[in-house]
Amino acid sequence: MVEQKQRSEFPENELWDLTALYQDREDCLLPREKTREDINQFTRDYKDNLHTFEDFEKAFAELEQIYIQRSHIGNYSFMPQTTDYGDESFAQIAQAGTEASVALSFFDAALVNADEKVLDRLGQLPHLTAAIRQAKIQKAHYVGADVEKALTNLSEVFYSPQDIYTKMRAGDFAMEDFEVDGKVYKNSFISYENFYQNHENAQVREKSFRSFSAGLRKHQHTAAAAYLAQVKSENLISDMR
């Protein structure tokens, strides 16, 4: 019998070992503050001071270390969320990612507005090839530093419909149990997608599908509203650009 469980119900040795990143949640808070300080210092050093090839090369070297730390913090907070969307404790850590993106948006603006010759020289550096290629693509659709900063600041709002749907699907969908040959099966979104829809027993496939469909139908209006909000958000972003 397959039954969906909360992350808190599993023994510790069956959970992802996140200690390669940080020992615990509290251990993650110190580097988060350190990263915030590094971003503030980076801003003081480089805002309105990015003009030459040498300026950008030096800034990229420092920015790389900030991005590495942000990646560690982001992954540490994101992975537990994917297993239990009802637990908001790690989501609070993840919110720092948006703050950092907003604070660093001046660098993206400076890069997009950099002299083409400077971009060409930077693009010849193997470790910057992808970043410069992306900057040149963005240059063709750039709408100005203020608008880009506003879009970055609103990223959590724009992604909220997807977040709502994901949490609804992973945490709120209630599927009825079903019975085949005297055996009762627990059903859930994950159980159906990963096991029952491809089950060797045709009755299990059929009854799990009916249970699954009935469960989805209970949330169809919320799911439709989230989808409509997502479409409107994407159209708004497109119009602003």
Compact overview of the structure:
This protein has 241 residues and is mostly helical. The chain has helices at 25-46, 53-83, 89-94, 96-103, 105-112, 116-123, 129-139, 145-153, 155-172, 189-194, 202-218, 220-240, and strands at residues 178-180, 183-185.
Beta-strand portion reads under 5%
Uncertain residue ranges? none
List the strand order in the largest sheet.
Answer: 1-2
Morphology: elongated
Work out the helix count. 12
Could you explain how this protein is built, in words?
This protein is mainly α. It is 68% helix and 2% strand. The chain contains twelve helices and two strands. The chain has helices spanning 25-46, 53-83, 89-94, 96-103, 105-112, 116-123, 129-139, 145-153, 155-172, 189-194, 202-218, 220-240, and strands at 178-180, 183-185. The chain has a two-stranded antiparallel sheet with strand order 1-2. The model has no long low-confidence stretch (mean pLDDT 82).
Key features of this structure:
single chain, 241 residues, mainly alpha, 2 strands, 2% strand
